């Protein structure tokens, strides 16, 4: 078949802004998909995009040979110097609990202006902040807690909100070690400041756990360590279905190069071990994977490919 013979809508047609502005009669709606809903047994899962972070390309593997790293970016049709990182948040409803897993980056970082959309996008999805009973934080990096530090957000959350964080994570941010990371200038200070601010502002609502905690039926948060000492993942299981929200244990490059050190990893060797262990497990039990920085909505499966892994995007179901 010749590609020239297939019909292709013109770009002009696809971006018909007149019609778009009147979709459902709501003039201000975004024309991008910013939330994606699925079910895991009886558990409702909504992946919400906080936006995109633009970061230096080298951060995806600072221990990799620069030529090999550039070749990988080229093969993935990505620019060599800028990494466009998705920033996904998940909302889970199970039993009588409504659980927000991570909170995006918030509004404090004007240089990262394509992210920080969570609160607005929850509103667009008719998700009331006051309906959230629990927050689970995979770790306290600013791109995971910043949304809770936006002006006015804490006041809109319920006073009896429970914020679940690994005890090791809370302890780490009292005096965090940045000696093994590889970040752009300014990031360590911003991360320190945000981590400490979060601990202070939400201290009375924090519910610390040691290794794991069942937040609601079929919603288990489990500490992995590695990325940060208290980094955790959330395992969902209901009616024979399973899904894991891996936070920052898995990045896009981590399937093919699980041994590449991400610039945000505080203990990169341990982070790589955690990644391999988790990917092996997800491949073996065939469950779905969602992760913070995989392309939205990031619902996928993991396959074993020789010594490494293969990313298998999930079908778009609606
Ligand atoms: Zn992150």
Please provide a written account of the structure.
By secondary structure, the chain is an alpha/beta fold. The protein has nine helices and 14 strands. It has helices at residues 11-14, 17-20, 66-75, 118-124, 142-145, 153-156, 167-172, 187-201, 268-285; strands at residues 35-40, 43-56, 82-94, 97-101, 134-136, 162-166, 206-209, 212-216, 219-223, 232-238, 241-245, 288-290, 300-305, 308-313. The strands form three sheets. Strands 1-2-3-4-5-6-7 form a seven-stranded mixed β-sheet. β1 (35-40) and β2 form a beta hairpin. The longest helix has 18 residues, at 268-285. It is globular. The relative contact order is 0.15. The structure holds zinc ion.
């Amino acid at each position: 078949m010749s590609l020239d013979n297939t019909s292709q809508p013109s770009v002009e047609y696809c971006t018909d802004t007149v019609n778009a502005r009147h979709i459902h009669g709501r003039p201000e709606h975004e024309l991008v998909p910013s939330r994606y809903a699925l079910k895991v047994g009886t558990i409702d899962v909504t992946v919400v995009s906080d936006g995109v972070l633009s970061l230096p390309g080298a951060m995806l593997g600072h221990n990799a040979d620069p030529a090999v790293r550039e070749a990988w970016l080229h093969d993935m049709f990505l620019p060599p110097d800028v990494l466009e990182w998705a920033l996904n948040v998940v909302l889970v409803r199970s039993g009588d609990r409504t659980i927000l897993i991570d909170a995006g980056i918030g509004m404090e970082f004007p240089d990262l202006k394509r992210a920080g959309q969570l609160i607005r996008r929850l509103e667009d999805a008719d998700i009331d902040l006051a309906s959230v009973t629990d927050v689970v934080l995979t770790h306290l990096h600013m791109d995971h807690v910043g949304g809770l530090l936006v002006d006015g957000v804490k006041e809109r959350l319920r006073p009896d909100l429970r914020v679940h964080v690994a005890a090791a994570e809370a302890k780490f941010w009292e005096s965090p070690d940045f000696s093994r990371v590889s970040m752009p200038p300014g990031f360590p200070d911003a991360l320190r400041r945000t981590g400490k601010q979060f601990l202070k502002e939400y201290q009375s609502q924090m519910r610390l756990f040691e290794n794991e905690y069942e937040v609601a039926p079929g919603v288990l948060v489990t500490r992995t360590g590695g990325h940060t000492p208290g980094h955790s993942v959330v395992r969902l299981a209901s009616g024979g279905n399973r899904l894991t929200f891996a936070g920052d244990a898995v990045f896009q490059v981590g399937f093919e190069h699980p041994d590449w050190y991400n610039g945000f990893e505080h203990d990169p060797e341990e982070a790589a071990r955690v990644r391999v262990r988790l990917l092996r497990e997800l491949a073996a039990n065939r469950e779905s994977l969602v992760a913070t920085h995989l392309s939205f909505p990031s619902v996928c499966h993991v396959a074993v490919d020789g010594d490494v892994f293969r990313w298998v995007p999930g079908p778009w179901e609606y």
